[in-house]
Amino acid sequence: MAGSPRPTRTARVTGPRCGQGRWKKGQVEAFMSLFRKADPVWTTAHGKRLSGWQTIHDFTAQALPGATKHGIAAYTPVRILFIRPDVAAVNVHQVPFNPDGTPADTPEGRPFYILAKEEGVWKITAAQNTQVYQGS
């Protein structure tokens, strides 16, 4: 039926989740390799809107190395909706951990990614990271 929503399918989409090991080491270039080069957009958990690969890179180069001193986060995709075979909307459950691996006393995150498959590789095209606070 025309206009009906497509069913949600799950599949292995490599991209943001693959980056968690890279991010904990503070490797900016490895993190940035997850983003599409052409016009990506990202809104941080604190509402800072970033447009363009270089702008995201510059922000990440300042923020990421220091942030990883306080711990890491595990990223688990919880829902993948294929808008087209080469475009996916991904809801993620982000759980923070202290450097010793114990759960951190900081809010979890609920990132939302739009991924596009380019030359066989899934890349972040647009992202919104949202912190979850108690009672919300």
3D architecture notes:
With 136 residues, this protein is α+β, with helices and mostly antiparallel strands. Helices cover 18% and strands 36% of the residues. The protein has helices at residues 20-24, 28-32, 53-67, and strands spanning 41-43, 49-51, 72-84, 87-97, 108-109, 112-118, 121-128, 131-132. The strands form two sheets. It has a six-stranded mixed beta sheet. It has a two-stranded antiparallel sheet with strand order 5-8. The longest helix has 15 residues, at 53-67. 18% of the residues are buried.
What are the SSEs and their pairings?
Layout: H1 20-24, H2 28-32, E1 41-43, E2 49-51, H3 53-67, E3 72-84, E4 87-97, E5 108-109, E6 112-118, E7 121-128, E8 131-132
Parallel strand pairs: 1-7
Antiparallel strand pairs: 1-2, 3-4, 4-6, 5-8, 6-7
